[in-house]
Amino acid sequence: MAYINKCPYCATVLQKEDPRCPKCGAENIFYGVDMSGDEYQNPSPVRAAEPVAAPEGKSRTASTGKCPYCGSTLRSDEKNCPNCNAINPNYVEDTPRTIIQPKTIEELKEYCAERGMPLLRMRFFIGEDYREPRAFGIYRDGRDVVVYKNKDTGARAIRYRGPDEAFAVNELFQKLLSECHNRGIYPDGKLPQTRSGGGRGRTSNKQGCLTALKAFGIWILIMAMFIGILASVNGCVHRKDGYYSNGNGAVYYHYGNDWYFTYDDNPSGYWYETDSFPESNYEQYSLGDDWNDEWGVSDFRESSTWDDLHSSSDSDSSSDYDSWDSGGTDWSSDW
Hints:
Order of helices and strands: HEEHHEEEEHHEEEEEHH
Strand order of the largest sheet: 10-9-8-7-11
Strand content: 15-25%
Mean pLDDT: 76
Largest sheet: 5 strands, antiparallel
Distance between the termini: 54 Å
Number of domains: 3
Radius of gyration: 28 Å
Oligomer: single chain
Number of helices: 7
């Protein structure tokens, strides 16, 4: 099969007379090369690929194409075809994949992972039919994709059910961005716009600022008093972190102010969040601070749930999500 010279960035077919791609301006690495020889008409599929430098001002985001020799799917960050080992003419060195607008469930997962979002704390369950209260989620059910919200009562509101995965993903994606924006977090980089006033409005703006500062000072004082009260109350009712069980086949773990549980026949080892321990006198059911494999359940501090709770600590934007409080969401509405 003869080799077809295509631009590694936009896939436009290039001629040897083109020093650069006429569409995007990328350099034509085969400029002036006579491609009528046997090397290009019957290419050897074992050569190592040379990296193509990204043109100035162009994003080095990995893209997907097809191998010109066997037709297999090929990413631009793969030097050689994984099927026939042929050179990848569109190879670009060190091409991190950056999702801007996810269109599939997997891309939505990748978008959140790239930004270090602690999805469990944020109450977003991507690719999972989560049944506990207070949750947003998306999952595939046969040919349909389902977008849902579990309200604080445990009732489920279906936002969308149908075959259009891109539409379904966008519904949850926009809700995710909305929840972030409401907390002053902007993973999409779209900061709120501010208005600037004219000449005669400057005096009123100053007065408005003074009024706002006074109101803010009063608010700070009230919040300080409120936090002090909460701290004293929390000190009285704080539950000790550790493992608990009332013998119903489940093991619970208390972490901070939250409860999590799993059960002995759970193959995934995942720990699920729950509102409370099933018994009011929880102290009598303590199993201690340390995990014991005789319980037949996974270690909470070695589980994927624990990883989800702490996934943002490895991200540059970890401080944005550390204070996330799912209580700020209106869990009584349908969406």
